[in-house]
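Need Recombination-associated protein RdgC's 3D structure for a figure. Predict it.
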Amino acid sequence: MWFRNLLVYRLTQDVRLDPETLETALANKRARPCASQELSTYGFVAPFGKGEDAPLVHTSEGFTLIAARKEERILPGSVVRDAVKEKVDEIEAEQMRKVYKKEKEQIKDEILQAFLPRAFIRKSATFAAIAPSLGLILVDSSSAKRAEDLLSTLREAIGSLPVRPLSVKVAPSATLTGWVQAQQASEGFYVLDECELRDTHEDGGVVRCKRQDLTSDEITQHLGAGKQVTQLALAWQDKLSFVLDDKLVIKRLRFEDLLQDQAEQDGGEDALGQMDASFTLMMMTFAEFLPALFEALGGEEIPQGI
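Structure prediction for Recombination-associated protein RdgC:
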């Protein structure tokens, strides 16, 4: 149940997000299979357990977990293009005339409708945690598009969801660059052995380093030439490690064995108990980690009028 990525959104107004209200609202947007002529469907599923009776909302220690599933039919573009070309060539040969754009689009639509029932189906799930005490929604994704799909569907379900991506007062790239230059991060954070350096000029170069001593002369020369750190691997206390980029996307989250072992002990023998214990411990860790991270990055920026 440990999140692997993190996009953080700030709730800008009070919204009723209690478990009972959410459960009723999400039931109106429950996930369902694609019909034979549908390209995709999107809706909420139970974050734990399976079946129609499994709750769509899981709560623990004041934190709430929800999950959404996208189901889509996969039609390879090359297959569709080849079928369209074959049909166009056939018409032009038989009728001795040119097939133009509008007719090609119509042919493409007909082929798509014919192929859809036989297309492969792909399912993908996105999890989100709501932390009312922090005023945050945390989405387990590094893709803003996937996060917005979940948030917009949640907004439709409950009628209103005033959120915005969390931002900080100082440009993250400036802070990350400063940490690498100083060979030291803010208290509680530690620079690891991976970073991305980018030239600030248009069409500038990019240097990606893995398993690299970031105190080396090579890195110092890149920084001296004006490159900025746009991605940096970090650790926080002895609890987790992650990669942070200049858009505040947290990737490749890894919770240390100490936390995972504790969750395993707390969860007991039951699989659902294990997932609940992991979720609870993860969220309690986030409740300490995220405020510390935002403070280390210069403090959260609150737009005027909010």
